[in-house]
Amino acid sequence: xxxxxxxxxxxxxxxxxxxxxxxxxxxxxxxxxxxxxxxxxxxxxxxxxxxxxxxxxxxxxxxxxxxxxxxxxxxxxxxxxxxxxxxxxxxxxxxxxxxxxxxxxxxxxxxxxxxxxxxxxxxxxxxxxxxxxxxxxxxxxxxxxxxxxxxxxxxxxxxxxxxxxxxxxxxxxxxxxxxxxxxxxxxxxxxxxxxxxxxxxxxxxxxxxxxxxxxxxxxxxxxxxxxxxxxxxxxxxxxxxxxxxxxxxxxxxxxxxxxxxxxxxxxxxxxxxxxxxxxxxxxxxxxxxxxxxxxxxxxxxxxxxxxxxxxxxxxxxxxxxxxxxxxxxxxxxxxxxxxxxxxxxxxxxxxxxx
Length: 354
Known about the structure:
The protein is an alpha/beta fold. The protein contains 14 helices and 9 strands. About 50% of the residues lie in helices and about 15% in strands. The chain is globular and about 70 Å long.
């Protein structure tokens, strides 16, 4: 027998889907606003009319009208009909326009286009179970990851995370060695070098483009002589060499996560510490039915999981959760496992020791 349709529920779900489609399309406009500096300009000149914004930016007034109205409809921008002016409130500007803010999401806005652009390639991956290689993603993908993760290294690594592991701070203060594995563009390693002038810091990553960005970032920070970057994976780590090793959102998309962690364990000196940062989530989907869960599963499908599977890897995905992290740590030979007392809506951190 056919199931009786609850029309009210169908209409409610229809509204949700239409809203989600609008959100997805708004993401493209947010990408444009970020790349053209429109959010930054609005933060500087609000309130502003379309004509004044066009004059200030040199952009088409007709396109700006449509863009501003979309941002107004979404609640990103406020509109004053009596004056025809648009306003980016300071509470919105700190999220959309200020790269020095701990709330800044410009990197995630930039992430939208290069990530979604891989969707046609995933059609084949869904059929054959393989993936899309990291090499297939455009340079904007890695710039976006850099910008998206910058606030946590700038505002939390030295101020909140390292202090929960006093033995790490003590070792680095007296000239210890630290490595960031899967370092990307090097922001964490650079922050450590800035915070611990006596320490010797190195970053490793298999992606040549990211290492090039890391070296450029270190030079721009005036730290090129104090932090080194190498194109290498964890198999190249010297044994019993480092007092501190970190991985930030690396294990869940590793090709061989147990091998990665085992190599890190062997590279630590006796009493050394391994810091693992992963996404804050539950391994149970029913506990991730929220905006962060929606983001996490989407970015995992479009990047994290598929880049691992493309190389024949484990393809764990971003929703790894604490139980899986503990399992991998045990298999890799770590005896000490502690979840750090860090209250962060996006990330969870673990302290591991051999």
